[in-house]
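Protocol step 4 of 5: obtain the predicted structure for the target chain.
Materials: sequence only (see below). No template structures provided, no constraints applied. The aim of this step is simply to have a reference model before the mutagenesis design in step 5. Sequence pasted as it appears in the construct record:
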Amino acid sequence: MYRPRVRTRAFLLLLLPLAGALALLGAVLLRGAPGSDARDDASTGATIVFAEFGPRADSIYTAPATDPARRTLVTVVEHVEGWGINPAPAMAGTRVAYTVLPPGAEPRRDARAELWL
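Step 4 output (structure tokens):
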């Protein structure tokens, strides 16, 4: 029976939430694209949540789905240099869940990340 190596499983566990979050963000943006039958933000209240990644900290924003430039900073998440946050593929109720390798942690593939909401 084939058993993936531990490194492969760890990589997939890190990659899958990020891929899911990107797919969710793409679906939200496409739903509000010109030519679609989606109503404007004023009537739907559609909001997107997204992150701007940095070398030692990531900024999390919200914005109207049809105008991401009107963003509002929610929080800044510090992390080990070169390691960003990994968002969950879906909202947890009205919250966004993500994992992060906090400052001071050992930057290794098998390091234990923290789960935040």
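Step 4 remarks: The two ends are 38 Å apart (CA to CA). The longest strand covers residues 57-64.
Proceed to step 5.
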